[in-house]
């Protein structure tokens, strides 16, 4: 007798454990750990992951596994263990951790049907129900609800004429393409050709085609070659000459592109000095963690490429992580050009099906390298030789919903399992990583010079308050405007960066100063020009733009702050001849548009590239000689202890877009707080001083990397309830943690109400609290009855990245 331990797809506290199921004899050879199965669970059928096989169970009565969903394990032993680790580290449900490692297409879809119990039950049912079951045995749940006779159905269900049946569906659909092949040998084909009547021209042509090219061909191509319709093919299939069949193919998002192969550059001395220790660790299969700290354009990517090449030569595989917004076609191209079809690419721009296909290439060991955003860290390779995280400081490596993992932690954990090195790369490392490198926990490798002998661009800071004082009310300072004009005459290109994070285009009354807020969330509504409306970006609430101020009745009510559209309009006025490409969520929402716009800019079809965060990274165009930052402050004032660090990183990244090649670059940063150290130091590209200064502030305020953080957030519609639950949690932690721990709260979260729910939080700062995870688990357990009902929600974020 064999028994499988199964984690069921019911993410709840009570079901967050292994359940035992009997393995039916017919599935014995297939069911192994890492296989997904369909199992009965209560009255339903659910998906589950087999995590182990054993010979006996403590339980007497076991139910049977209904069927396997895979023939090959989708999670190998290493990933199953990683799931355990991740569950513990992030305090998430085991099933959520396992699910997070698989592409979305493999999430189970459930279908609920109402079916006739047997054929005789049809006659016994109420007429009105019976009429719905004419010629059919099944209604979907939705059809039943739409029929609008709940009590009648209920009765039939109770007296056993109908039953509710659950199905677990695999959502993944493999893509197939119709193919045609000859069923006959060449001689037989020419005989067949003779037997065809002369009037069957198209059929003859098709047979002739296969006489010359007997291999199978897609129906589409065949029809193109012979200029025929499908009917002629059908006729030949019926005559037994040809066969039609479906061939499974991969959806390849890059299929229409060819990549020229590139070979490795000769490394500079600095690059060689950095690659040496990495290669040594790759060869020695040593789990070293490197921090590759190199200014923008210093040739980090080339080092990744050559290290990965080494890994492939050693017969192993590599994972290359890049933040979502840097995963530009340009970046992908560099890897495809070097490693051709040995590369799989995983990013959110792909359709669910495309992602699944890329995942399968990895799973079937058909590729050696995966380039992808956060979740690519779970690539199901068996034999990893290197993991690289570029721009390791990026906040997007942390997943903000359960399981709240950080890709850096996962990479380091997998590096340990595979006994391979991990490279963290950045021009502006996170304080956490740089501090570890200084302590020798990570091995520091530095690149201090830019490629092509190009120097870092010169950066000027413009005080916008001063501009206002001298009467310039435009969003462009005198200086930036002059430089823009200059570039236009010289035919050089400019990047204009608008920081859209933070509250930009809110509506304010100039007479009384009132700001229009969302009625459900305590944040300002955003003005949308296209339909002259106001929208909440947290809950989706939408209302018309009021003609007069709702508070004082003044008609001096305007939207404030600047969106990219507004800047584009302004540019049209002051530089009517400039050709502008705007890149923001609106212009890049269509698939492929991102790439089209960038290509157009690269081909010189525009003078100015205007955009948000998405243009801060990864651009490497030789003709960009000017970068303008329209307002550097928006991020500086967010309620987040990393605000200065993020501002510094962003300004450094944006500045790095200029002058990467022969032409020298200039940067203009406009700000209302020119004296702020993160702006000053970013302008000087002085990471080392910034690091020292910021570390001092973190030390004084007990923030990472001196302290660890844990954030508990409580959500409820009722304010008093929200506060009292947070209060209880805070008290519990205070009385159970050590005296070294600092517990802040309860306080309202920076976003204190979203979607009509209040948010209160408790922030824990600590150095060493071995009991913390257990205490947090207790909290989840204690409130479990209430949270299960859905009213109350408690979120726990260990090492939070987002403080909002
Ligand atoms: P980073 O990743 O640090 O921003 P890149 O690897 O993108 O830097 O390098 C910047 C530019 O220099 C790229 O255009 C790259 O192709 C080029 N490059 C990198 N290494 C070399 C080298 N050893 N010789 C010549 N060109 C190089
Ligand atoms: Zn007013
Ligand atoms: Zn809202």
From TrEMBL:
Residue sites binding Zn(2+) 2 per the record: 518, 521, 536, 539
Keyword Hydrolase: yes
One GO CC term on file: primosome complex
Gene Ontology biological process: DNA recombination; DNA replication initiation; DNA replication, synthesis of primer; double-strand break repair
Cofactor: Zn(2+)
One Pfam family in the UniProt entry: PriA_3primeBD
Reaction catalysed by this enzyme: ATP + H2O = ADP + phosphate + H(+); Couples ATP hydrolysis with the unwinding of duplex DNA by translocating in the 3'-5' direction
Gene Ontology MF annotations: 3'-5' DNA helicase activity; ATP binding; ATP hydrolysis activity; DNA binding; zinc ion binding
Gene3D superfamilies: P-loop containing nucleotide triphosphate hydrolases, PriA, 3(prime) DNA-binding domain
Protein EC: 5.6.2.4
Binding site for Zn(2+) 1: 509, 512, 549, 552
Helicase ATP-binding domain sequence ranges: 281-447
Helicase C-terminal domain segment(s): 544-698
Keywords: ATP-binding, DNA replication, DNA-binding, Helicase, Hydrolase, Isomerase, Metal-binding, Nucleotide-binding, Primosome, Zinc
Cofactor binding: number and manner: Binds 2 zinc ions per subunit.
Similarity remark: Belongs to the helicase family. PriA subfamily.
Subunit structure: Component of the replication restart primosome.
Function: Initiates the restart of stalled replication forks, which reloads the replicative helicase on sites other than the origin of replication. Recognizes and binds to abandoned replication forks and remodels them to uncover a helicase loading site. Promotes assembly of the primosome at these replication forks.
Name of the molecule in the record: Replication restart protein PriA
Species of provenance: Peribacillus saganii
């Amino acid at each position: 007798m064999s028994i499988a331990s199964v984690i069921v797809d019911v993410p709840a506290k009570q079901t967050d454990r292994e359940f035992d199921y009997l393995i039916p004899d017919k599935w014995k050879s297939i069911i192994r750990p890492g296989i997904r199965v369909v199992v009965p669970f209560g009255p339903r059928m659910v998906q589950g992951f087999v995590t182990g096989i054993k010979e006996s169970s403590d339980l007497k009565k076991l139910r049977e596994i209904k069927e396997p969903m895979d023939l090959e394990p989708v999670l190998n032993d290493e990933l199953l263990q990683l799931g355990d680790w991740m569950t513990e580290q992030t305090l998430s449900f085991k099933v959520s951790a396992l699910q997070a490692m698989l592409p979305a297409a493999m999430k189970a879809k459930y279908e609920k049907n109402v079916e006739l119990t047997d054929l005789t039950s049809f006659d016994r049912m109420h007429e009105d129900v019976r009429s719905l079951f004419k010629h059919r045995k099944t209604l979907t749940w939705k059809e039943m609800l739409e029929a609008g006779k709940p009590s009648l159905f209920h009765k039939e269900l109770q007296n056993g004429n109908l039953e509710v049946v659950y199905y677990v569906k695999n959502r993944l659909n493999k893509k197939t393409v119709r193919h045609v092949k000859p069923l006959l040998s060449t001689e037989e084909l020419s005989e067949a050709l003779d037997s065809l009547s002369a009037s069957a021209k198209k059929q003859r042509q098709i047979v002739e085609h296969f006489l010359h090219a007997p291999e199978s061909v897609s129906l589409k191509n065949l029809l193109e070659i012979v200029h025929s319709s499908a009917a002629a093919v059908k006729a030949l299939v019926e005559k037994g000459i040809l066969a039609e069949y479906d061939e499974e193919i991969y959806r390849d998002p890059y299929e229409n592109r060819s990549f020229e192969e590139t070979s490795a550059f000769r490394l500079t001395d600095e690059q060689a000095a950095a690659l040496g220790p990495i290669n040594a660790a790759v060869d020695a299969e040593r789990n070293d963690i490197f921090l590759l700290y190199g200014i923008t354009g210093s040739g980090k990517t080339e080092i990744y490429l050559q290290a990965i090449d080494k890994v492939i030569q050693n017969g192993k595989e590599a994972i290359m992580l890049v933040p979502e917004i840097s995963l530009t076609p340009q970046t992908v191209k560099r890897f495809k050009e070097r490693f051709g079809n040995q590369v799989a690419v995983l990013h959110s721009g792909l359709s669910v099906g495309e992602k699944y296909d890329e995942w399968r290439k990895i799973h079937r060991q058909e590729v050696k390298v995966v380039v992808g955003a956060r979740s690519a860290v779970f690539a199901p390779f068996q034999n990893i030789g290197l993991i690289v995280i570029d721009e390791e400081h990026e906040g997007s490596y942390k997943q903000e919903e359960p399981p709240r993992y950080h890709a850096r932690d996962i990479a380091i954990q997998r590096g340990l399992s595979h006994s391979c090195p991990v490279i963290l790369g950045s021009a502006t490392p996170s304080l956490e990583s740089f501090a570890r490198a200084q302590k020798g926990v990570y091995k520091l490798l530095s690149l201090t010079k830019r490629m092509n002998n190009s120097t870092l661009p010169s950066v000027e800071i413009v005080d916008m308050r001063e501009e206002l004082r001298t009467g310039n009310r435009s969003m462009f300072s005198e200086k930036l405007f002059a430089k823009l004009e200059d570039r236009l005459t010289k035919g050089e290109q400019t990047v204009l960066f608008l920081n859209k994070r933070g509250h930009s285009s809110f509506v304010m009354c100039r007479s009384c100063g009132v700001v229009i807020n969302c009625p459900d969330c305590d944040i300002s509504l955003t003005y949308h020009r296209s339909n002259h409306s106001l929208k909440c970006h947290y809950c989706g609430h939408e209302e018309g733009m009021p003609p007069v101020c709702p508070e004082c009745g003044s008609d001096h009510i305007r939207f404030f702050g600047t969106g990219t559209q507004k800047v584009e309009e302004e540019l049209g006025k002051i530089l009517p001849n400039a050709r502008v490409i705007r890149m923001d969520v609106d212009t890049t929402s269509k698939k492929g548009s991102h790439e089209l716009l960038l290509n157009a800019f690269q081909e010189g079809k525009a003078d100015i590239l205007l955009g948000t965060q998405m243009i801060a990274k990864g651009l490497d165009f030789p003709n960009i000689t000017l970068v303008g930052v329209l307002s550097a402050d928006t991020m500086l004032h967010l309620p987040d202890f990393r605000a200065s660090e993020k501002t510094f990183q962003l300004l450094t990244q944006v500045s790095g877009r200029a002058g990467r090649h022969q032409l020298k670059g200039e940067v203009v940063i406009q700000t209302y707080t020119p004296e702020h150290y993160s702006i000053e130091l970013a302008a000087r590209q002085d990471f080392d001083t910034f690091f020292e200064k910021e570390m001092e502030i973190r030390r004084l305020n007990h923030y990472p990397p001196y302290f660890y953080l844990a954030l508990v957030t409580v959500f409820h519609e009722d304010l008093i309830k929200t506060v009292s639950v947070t209060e209880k949690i805070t008290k519990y932690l205070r009385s159970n943690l050590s005296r070294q721990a600092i517990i802040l709260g309860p306080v309202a979260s920076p976003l204190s109400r979203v979607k009509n729910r209040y948010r209160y939080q408790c922030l824990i700062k600590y150095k060493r609290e071995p009991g913390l995870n257990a205490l947090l688990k207790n909290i989840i357990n204690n409130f479990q009855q209430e949270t299960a009902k859905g009213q109350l929600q408690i979120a726990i974020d260990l090492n939070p990245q987002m403080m909002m």
